[in-house]
Amino acid sequence: MRGGPGFFIVATLLGSLAAASAGDGTFPFGTELMLDAARLPGGKRIPMIEIEDNGTATIDLWCVSVRGSATVGDSALTIVAADPPAPLPQCTPARQAADQDLLAALSQVTAWRGRGEVIELVGPTTLRFRRMTN
Description:
- It is a single chain.
- The chain is α+β, with helices and mostly antiparallel strands.
- It has one domain (25-131): Lipocalin (Beta Barrel), CATH 2.40.128.270.
- The protein is built from two helices and eight strands.
- 16% of the residues are buried.
């Protein structure tokens, strides 16, 4: 049989890429979304958010992680985060301030839109996230 396993692997990868970049208008529930931002000096962490289809949200900030809830509609989105825990000892004041700023921006999100691998959370500040595809 010509093509064999190699053909199957290539076809599967191409199908996955096409589905991921189709931007079909459905929110990517259960997918880790990484903030489209550079790392802060002295750290390796970049904020991420994951929203499950039941509305449970996990938000990894620059220093700490918080749980929350999200209500997702066709293009509407609201996020309510729990109070963050005390910062870790290695968190600098600048990183703590960045956490507070990001939580404030997330709490003001009113809508979302998908553009291929990019998900934008829209509010007074538009936050760009990228789907983690690994």
